[in-house]
Amino acid sequence: MIARKTWREVRGMTLAYTVIIELLLLPAILLWPNLRRGGSLLVEMMPAQFLKDMARQIMGQNDEAAYLAYMAVQMFFKGINIVGIAAAVLMGTGLIARERENQTLEFLLARPVSRSRILAAKYVVVGLAVVVPIFLTSWTAVPLSRIESVAQDLPFDRVTIASLHNAAFVLLVYTATLVFSILARAQVHAAFWIGAVVISQVAIYFIQEIRVYSLFRCSDFEVYGPVMAGNTSFGELFWGQTIWLLVATAALYALADALFRRTGP
Q1: The pTM of the whole model exceeds 0.70
Q2: Which of 7, 14, 243, 9 lies closest to 137 in space, CA to CA?
Q3: Averaged over 231-256, what is the pLDDT?
């Protein structure tokens, strides 16, 4: 019952979120041949050294390696990191705060089920709405890359490995948003606080001297580039990095559950 109601609330946003990712991905793939021909200026346009290094890999002499680096940027570093996090924040802030703001939280808590089950039902539905489109849209890049004008091979397994890590990163942001949604009196307050966290982390990421302290180092080109190039295996990525994103997500969810069990309307 709670899961069905939650799905009705987010299904429109889920569809829009999926379409937006796909609409960003499709032209990126189709424009690859033009970018490849005129890409010498791309390196010089980059404002930071790590971005110049990324651009050099995209403009490398090996056409196959260059395309894989390009898709690591377009699908994960840029596309899902931006749209996925936006969707996680948009849907996550309303999970509890909107119920409180609409004065329906009291009725939700009056149901003959535990608060932990209520939270889990809502969390899982929205979590799937945030994560599943990451895989669906990324997988469409595999056949799209084979069209005649592009004619590139995008390995399905590498795309899936990168999607799994990117989904874990977005899930972490979504779970942090849930904590703010439980604490906030209104949805806009939750959006402000999680927005402040995300923006500060992005700002740190683009400052060369301190970017190592940014959470976005866990989901940048230096993570996805080697995966797409085939230089990082699933086990290396999962046990080296993804597992820690999942551990942090579990810790945040435990905090959210504890807060929700003590919360009032």
Answers
A1: yes
A2: 14
A3: 97
